[in-house]
Structure formats: C-alpha cells, structure tokens
Amino acid sequence: MKDKNRFSILLEHLMAIAELKNSILAKAVQYDDSYISKWISGKLLPTEKNHENTLQAISHCIVEALSEESTAQLLQEYQLQDINDLETAIYDNLESEYMYVKELQNSTGTEVAPKISYYPELTLDQFIF
C-alpha cells in the first residue's frame, strides 16, 4: 500500500473531525467524489492551477461542518481563541502541506518524504559504515 503524503493525512484528519463526507466536500469544491477520495488516499493533489480556490473552499466547508465539540477541538489544535481565525488557520495549514508535497514531487519525484535515520537512532556499526 502506498504511503499517504502529508496533505492527504491532514485532509483526512480535518474531514474526520468535522464528520464530513466525501460527497459533501465534493459539492463544496465542485469536484467529483472520486477526486476527493484520491486526495485523501494520496494518489492525487488538487490541480496546481486553482489549488488556492480549492483549498479555500475546503477550509470553508470544514468550518461550516464543525459541531460545537469539534470546533473546540480544532481551536485547541490550532491554538486559537477566535473561531473567525479558524478558517484561515486551516487554509494556511492545507496550503503549507500542499506546497511541501509539491516541492517533494519537484525535487525528488516522490510525494512522501523518505524515512531518515538520525544519528542517535543508528547503532555504532551503522554510524561508522
């Protein structure tokens, strides 16, 4: 199974918190349900040409779908006090993850960062090698 990229993980997380179905999000962003599934699975990203509008629509749809409890959860996750800032924070988060994955595609040809072993995680033999 293909690893998910950071954008798809974030989108799936936000949709789960908002209890948002693919079909509802698809209507909000004016895409087919199958695209939403591909974004969540990590197979595709929103098109680069109009990704800003798409991410704004996703952010708006998520905030609109939040319950009182899930709003409190996201306000805490994003360390915000005002619900009016939540949509912008979600957009900024989606945008940064989108750009991160796009940069990985352009620089390494992959959408998922490689697993990296840091020095403290290496045994002495691995470090020497």
Describe the 3D structure.
By secondary structure, the chain is mostly helical. It has one domain (6-128). The chain has 7 helices and no strands. The chain has helices spanning 6-17, 22-29, 33-41, 51-65, 68-77, 86-108, 124-128. Helix 4 (51-65) crosses helix 6 (86-108). The chain is globular and about 55 Å long. The two termini are 31 Å apart. The model has no long low-confidence stretch (mean pLDDT 88).
In summary, what is this structure?
This protein is an all-alpha fold and 129 residues long. The protein has seven helices and no strands.
Features:
single chain, 129 residues, mainly alpha, 7 helices, 64% helix
Rounded mean pLDDT is 88
Structural class: mainly alpha
Count the strands? Answer: 0
Bin the strand percentage: under 5%
Radius of gyration: 17 Å
Query: Largest sheet, described in full?
Result: none
Count of separate DSSP helical elements: 7
Portion in helices: 55-70%
Query: What is the CA–CA distance across the termini?
Result: 31 Å
Shape: globular
